[in-house]
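Rather than argue in generalities, we reproduce a single protein record, letters for residues, whole numbers for local backbone shapes, just as it appears below:
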Amino acid sequence: MSTNSQKPVLIIGGSGVVGSLAAKTLRQLQPALPITIGGRDLARAEAVARELGNADAARVDLGRPDLGQPGSRAYSAIVMFVKDDTLNSLRYAQTQGAAYLGISTALFEVAPEVAYFIHQPTRSAVLMASNWLAGAATLSTLHFARAFQSLDAIEITAVLDEQDVGGPAALVDLERQTKAAPSSLVLEQGRWRWAEAASSARTVRGVDGHALHAQPYSLLDPASLAAATEAKSVRFDVSVGMSSSRRRGEPFSTEFIIELEGVLEDGTRARVRHEVTHPRGQAPVTAMGVAVAVERLLGLSGGAPAAPGLYLPETLIAPEYLVQRLQESGVRFSRV
């Protein structure tokens, strides 16, 4: 274990619905790692910390450059489960030389984070993990893409059950991302274009055969996958409504469908569909994505601690490792 990893990981928003589950998942993977639960409500943060063990709580003020933390505090990583409009959290991580992980920045919002990194490129490892479910869709796609020698098209459709939006912070993210940009970036036949949501919507067959209305959504997945695979066409769509499990009268699930088209390793052309589901919704999938990312940033799995740099999930995390962890957490993968 590296010296830096002995410092606590500060999880801002760690007492929320997904943040607290991520903290518990990280604790399961790394029993000895110190964790600080940060938030505005100190009592809620302390309750989560007590449940975790080897953890404490801190009141965080994103309006202050020091986040309201005493000068004696030092952290190995800052993990964000809320959108920080000030980006004081990133500046604070850079000041400390701590790793930084954000999951709430839409594709059209990345410029400030990139600029802050460019101005201090030797300070921190900055992981932009605002892919669907903290990289779960992108890394699963890359895992399945290894069956191809070349890819022409990647199409991902995520199903977000309207009862599975998450806590208040997640709802704010969804509303901001859908209202702030009426168009989403897609790659079509080698050309990037902004696709207007209504005119670019499509109908997709769900995991239960039900027809889903899906439209483009501006997360980082298309950019990640285009760079990693050289596919000519990449799009990411989301369908908000009822998951297949809830249509059966069961609790909501999270689902995403990966469709890959290209030339397989044996030289034949094919279009392959993979369905990925979790019966308890998006929270445990996001939690595992974040926990694995923190492990990797700190060098607790998969290699040495990440050097200062600007990263996407697929540039740090081995797809097969995350897929393994997702399966252990209850994610079901099936090829159709």
Summary: The CA atoms of residues 74 and 96 lie 7 Å apart. The chain has two domains: 4-132+284-317, 136-281. The radius of gyration is 19 Å. The domain at 4-132+284-317 is CATH 3.40.50.720 (Rossmann fold).
